[in-house]
Amino acid sequence: MNVLVCIKQVPDNSVVPKLDPYTNRVVTEGVELMESPFDLNAVEAGLKLVEENGGEVSVLTLGGESAKTSLRYGLSMGAAKAYLLKDPAFEESDSWGTSYGLAKAIQSIGNFDVILCGKQAIDNDAGQVGPGIAEQLGISQITYVSEIVSVTEDTLTAKRVSPAGEEVVEAKLPVVLTCEKSLNEPRYPTLKRTRMANRAEIPEMDCAAVGAEHRLTPREIEVMQMLCAGRSRGYVAETLYISENTVKTHADRLYKKLGVHSREELVERFEVFENGGAPASFSDRLG
Hints:
Elements lengths: L1 E5 L2 E3 L21 E3 L1 H17 L2 E7 L5 H10 L3 E5 L9 H15 L4 E5 L10 H9 L2 E12 L3 E8 L2 E8 L2 E5 L11 H9 L4 E2 L1 H4 L7 H11 L4 H8 L3 H15 L4 H7 L13 H4 L1
Helix pairs in contact: 2-5, 3-4, 7-9, 8-9
């Protein structure tokens, strides 16, 4: 049985979060980071599955260089392989963009019988990435899993928490599971495996490697709308409650993703809606 676990690195929950006054986002630079706790329940579930059914566990994350620390933690728990999806195109991705990128990475890595995620990440509590991966891959999903009841060659049966109580659900493999804390107690890494994990080479993948298109984040779409409508950086900054330097950063990243070098090229290349909306080429992304 091939199992893949998606891990997310988040700010340490023992640290009081601070907001950047210009971007209204949580400051992560210089802050201690950790693995989202529910993702460790997912790693433990994966390890138990392969202990009972054979196979191996791989761990995957989307992020920067620091995210390798979380991947090494997964390796030190017992995972056999680790992969990092790293590309500026995914910076500030929403849940849709993250699930899209992870799904593309999963497809490029290989075939998996079970894909595990935590029920939600503790930094935004959205709980959307796991279901989003299943949707992108077109496979079964069981969310809020509190117990894996049985596994056959073709199916997996699990108990899930629901507003009405507890449900028992059977799904065909491959399947995405999102894991509750009550599912298990994550094991501690061993010293031997920690040393091995610290020496392990972790392959990096970018958009080109996984066949992912460069997608725009919601904030980049907002910036693009205003720039295409002829608004100044100062106007954009004031309207979106961000600094002009942040607008420049978004614009530079936007130009790089779209392969243009100026606002004139941006306006010339894309047809803009009459009301100042997003370019028609991205209307499906906004829907």
